[in-house]
């Protein structure tokens, strides 16, 4: 049926073409490949059957029940004088190139090399040949220098007695500067001499008892996605989006993919969308909800983010921005207490009002709102505020949820408590300002002007980017 086709989530189409991001990780034993994969994709490879790891060949697909959006191929590094491993990798890459369906191709390679000592050779001949091969078969490759923290530790060991007397903050800065300079000398410069176009990243703190370097992991994901973005072609969007779904190190990548997925069908021209014509608002919300949840790809075996209780929680928040000022009283009692959060107060405070937030949970879903979203889509300011509010509210709640769980060691399985904490963080931080800005946008011009400009989706992206949770990660 036509309606069923219109309601099909965009992510269904994407994942039908390429359900998993396929990555080849190359490196010697002990370099930190497993830990890198665990933290980058939020899994625990130690739980994978020994038949599929350890002695497995490069052709074997390594997957995890904790994240069904990626598949790993593992290759040993290239020891001097051993050509067998290289020839095996060459044969494998050539069999996974452009001649096979997109879902069967290798989409990216991480060549993992441990940060060497100053007098050690960083690249073996096999590494150089492999990088040339990757360029020939047109697979994006990132050289990942692992265990950078050992280099920092060496800088600490080499401090003079006089330097040891410096304040701790100064010592840290001094060691960081020296470690960065040494890294450039012994890792980056040899790489650039070999091929100045090659991209690299570095990681540290991925051992069992060490804290991961989150900004470094985020930078690795960003570098990988930049290379995928540069491929171009019809398959670019699909691989780029699936890679963003698969990774669990960068919230920025999740937000970017969520926005791009939304723009592909539902957000662009949302004020005058023909996609929703003849469809009930509640069905439209369910489809948008499904796309955004799929883009974030949390480990959610119980389906908590897709269950009705969570949908009701998000709708309880979003309903506050929907009614116009004149009919808000018919939707809610105690409008005076809610008006700041609804964005209709005569004066908007510069700080949040924690005493008001329990009211949001207490009111639940308004009977009027439930009846209203059972109606068919129409081009009205209320409908525009509904879609803008729901998209921004849900995305920013998931952004908070990412922040709640990312500090844990993999795997990071969601709980109801995690979701409730994320909701409260959103309500107590930016919800008031988000709803106010949505109303201000809708009031700047007549609704017909908004429809003609067809730019509401840009405001949605702006709101998400301006109000996302602050964290220590590089911005792309």
TrEMBL record:
Entry keyword annotation includes Membrane: yes
InterPro entries: GTP-bd, P-loop_NTPase
Residue ranges crossing the lipid bilayer per the database entry: 355-374, 386-407
Keyword Transmembrane helix (UniProt): yes
Gene Ontology MF terms: GTP binding
Domain G: residue ranges: 22-146
Keywords: Membrane, Transmembrane, Transmembrane helix
Protein's name according to its UniProt entry: G domain-containing protein
Organism listed in the record: Mycena pura
Species classification: Eukaryota, Fungi, Dikarya, Basidiomycota, Agaricomycotina
């Amino acid at each position: 049926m036509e309606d069923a086709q219109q309601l099909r989530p965009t992510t269904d189409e994407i994942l039908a073409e390429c359900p998993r991001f396929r990555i080849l990780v190359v490196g010697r034993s002990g370099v930190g490949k497993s830990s890198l994969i665990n933290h980058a994709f939020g899994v625990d490879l130690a739980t994978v059957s020994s038949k599929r790891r350890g002695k497995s060949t490069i052709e074997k697909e390594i997957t995890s029940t904790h994240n069904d959006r990626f598949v790993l191929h593992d290759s040993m590094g290239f020891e001097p004088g051993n050509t067998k491993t290289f020839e095996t990798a060459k044969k494998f890459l050539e069999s996974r190139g452009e001649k096979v369906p997109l879902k069967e191709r290798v989409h990216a390679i991480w060549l993992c090399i441990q940060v060497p000592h100053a007098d050690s050779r960083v690249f073996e001949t096999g590494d150089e040949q492999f990088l040339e091969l990757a360029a020939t078969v047109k697979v994006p490759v990132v050289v990942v220098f692992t265990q950078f923290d050992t280099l920092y530790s060496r800088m600490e060991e080499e401090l003079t007695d006089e330097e040891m007397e410096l304040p701790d903050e100064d010592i840290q800065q001094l060691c960081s500067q020296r470690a960065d300079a040494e890294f450039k000398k012994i890792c980056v410069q040899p790489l650039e001499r070999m091929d100045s176009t090659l991209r690299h990243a570095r990681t540290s703190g991925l051992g069992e008892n060490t804290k991961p370097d989150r900004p470094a992991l985020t930078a690795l994901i960003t570098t990988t996605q930049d290379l995928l973005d540069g491929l171009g072609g019809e398959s670019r969007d699909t691989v780029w989006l699936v890679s963003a779904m698969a990774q669990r190190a960068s919230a920025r990548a999740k937000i970017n993919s969520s926005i791009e997925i939304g723009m592909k069908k539902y957000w662009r021209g949302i004020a005058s969308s023909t996609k929703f014509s003849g469809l009930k608002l509640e069905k439209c919300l369910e489809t948008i909800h499904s796309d955004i949840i799929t883009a974030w790809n949390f480990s959610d075996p119980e389906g908590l983010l897709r269950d009705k209780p969570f949908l009701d929680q998000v709708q309880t928040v979003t309903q506050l921005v929907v009614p116009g000022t004149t009919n808000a009283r018919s939707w809610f009692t105690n409008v005076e207490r809610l008006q700041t959060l609804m964005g209709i107060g005569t004066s908007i405070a510069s700080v949040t009002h924690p005493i008001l937030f329990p009211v949001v949970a207490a009111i639940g879903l308004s009977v009027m709102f439930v009846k209203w979203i059972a109606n068919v889509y129409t081009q009205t300011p209320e409908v525009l505020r509904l879609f803008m509010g729901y998209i921004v509210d849900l995305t920013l709640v998931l952004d908070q949820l990412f922040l709640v769980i990312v500090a844990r060691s993999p795997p990071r399985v969601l709980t109801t408590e995690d979701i409730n904490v994320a909701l409260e963080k959103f309500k107590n931080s930016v919800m008031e300002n988000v709803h106010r800005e949505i109303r201000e946008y809708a009031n700047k011009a007549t609704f017909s002007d908004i429809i003609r400009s067809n730019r509401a989706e840009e405001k949605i992206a702006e709101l998400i980017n301006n109000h996302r949770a602050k964290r220590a990660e590089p911005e792309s």
